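note to self — DONT lose this again. spent like an hour looking for the file last time. sequence + predicted structure for the chain T wanted, 381 res
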Amino acid sequence: MPEQTTTPSAATSGVGPRRASSATGAVDADHRDAGRVDPESASERRLRRRRRLTGRGAIMVYALLGTLIVCSLTVPRFASVQTTGFLLLDAIPILMIAMPMALVIITGEIDLSVASTAGLTSAAMGVLWAAGWGIPEIFVVCVLIGVACGALNGMLVTTVGLPSLAVTIGTLALYRGLALVVIGDNAVADFPPALTSFFTSKIGATGIPTAMIGVAVIVVFFGVLLHLSSFGRTLPAIGFSREAASFVGVHVGRAKFWMFVSTGVVSALVGIYWTLRYSSARSDNATGIELAVIAAVLLGGVSIFGGRGSIPGVVAGVLVISSVSYALRLGGISDVVLNVVTGLLLVGSVVTPSLIAVIGAKRRARRSAREVLAASETAAA
């Protein structure tokens, strides 16, 4: 009887004492493992932290800090409240469009029609104001124009299947031509002075434009969308491989379509900002800023081939280009030289990652060859 009471589970289940003890040991081991940190997951977390500190986006943040320090020490009047205000006012259009543009390029596409969409919005805004429309109604119509422009790009790319480069080159000319048709060579410049004052006003004595509050909302929105939402996490997968993303259930066409719509909407907002900041609605407003936008996005770490990028890196890229441009302007450098600098930054941001990848591949190949040679010599010995 005592023996039966000491091992009741073994007796009733037909499991021997040795097997019962081993099962109990396995359960205890499971409890010990449950309380222990998985070494693989810990190493992955360390790798992620290291990438945050040494990745392309982090490098651009360090580059921005270095650029600001160098410009402050070498360029007269750069380190001032007035410079902060004018620099950010010039950077706002590029920073706004760079947010959706980054997501479009991460998916492996591109949108070159953003400046023309802003120009068309500005032209429509001038005509509607001259016709006696109210500002709220004009804002709604301008946003709808942006939605229509982005939706046309998205439909031609995702539904018809045309390459985005060809589509947006065509719509770049189309939207700019429509802007010229809408307003002609005229300019509307009698917008309410209160609106112009608001878009050029500063927050207290900081020199930071009041409009940066709205820009910060846009940056946070796209940052959360890309880095913290399930939808945003599918975008790099689309850029890496459209077929693989479709295979795992990602609606590739739908995602790309809405990305083009987002560039159209934000470009329309830039058209509104541009018109009210300069108090002038013209068909050629915002001409050429697509080059600066793409240069900033690529400089900020977004791969031109898609599949990689971060919003903090893009923000730093925009501010680096804006800081360099404004510093050169303070130094009396002409706009032609500024265009050359922007072009060099664009070429460098495309070529440098490719060169780094090629050099890394060659180093890995040499390392593998040495390991194979060493293994063969050891086997021969």
